[in-house]
Write a structure and sequence with these properties.
Low-confidence stretches: none
Number of strands: 0
Distance between the termini: 62 Å
Shape: globular
Order of helices and strands: HHHHHHHHHH
Oligomer: single chain
Length: 190
């Protein structure tokens, strides 16, 4: 059966979106495991199965690719959509679920800190896309402090769970450690 003109016209746009998505996913994986400095555009495009020139076409540069990759992951809706009455437990579940389909932006952010350009991008995006909306969600009274405490707790847990693994935060986390984390995150709501 022959394709319609509309189907033919839409195919390149769908392919472009699929290519862009593949590049972003490969970049997020690479930046989250090797860091910004140790990740090359060719590695990313090889993992995505695309031509390296497409990074320039879709993103302009490695810096802009990093920015797009991190922007996509810094989603406050993941946190502000959690039920307030079980907030602490839901956050700990979110941060410790190794089977979750969504990538955690924290390893990417932490590994980028060695590069001044990536660190500046991370700092700006963290404030604009995560901390400011989270502070607003917490409320005017102490919202900024609570958002900062949330970031510190989440970063610490991720650092010692994924980048410099400590057994206490690993798969076999004790009920006592988990309860402490749940209470710490819940205290930011109560």
């Amino acid at each position: 059966m022959p394709e319609s003109t509309l189907e033919t016209a839409l195919r390149p746009q769908r392919d472009a979106q699929r290519t862009r998505t593949a590049i972003l996913a490969a970049a997020q994986d690479a930046f989250s495991t090797r860091g910004y400095t140790d990740t090359g555009v060719r590695e990313i495009t090889a993992a995505a199965g695309v031509n390296p020139a497409l990074v320039s076409r879709y993103f302009g540069s490695k810096e802009r690719l990093y920015e797009a990759a991190l922007s996509e992951l810094l989603d406050t809706k993941q946190v502000i959509g959690l039920p307030r009455e079980s907030f602490g437990m839901a956050v700990v579940d979110l941060l410790t679920d190794s089977q979750r389909s969504r990538r955690n932006p924290l390893p990417m952010m932490m590994l980028a800190s060695a590069d001044p350009t990536a660190r500046a991008i991370t700092d700006r995006l963290l404030k604009e896309l995560f901390l400011e909306p989270l502070a607003h969600w917490y409320g005017q009274e102490r919202g900024e402090g609570k958002a900062t405490c949330f970031a510190a707790l989440a970063s610490g847990l991720t650092l010692y769970r994924e980048l410099y693994p400590l057994n206490a935060f690993g798969v076999q986390m004790s009920a006592e450690t988990r309860a402490w984390l749940v209470a710490a995150f819940q205290s930011l709501i109560d």
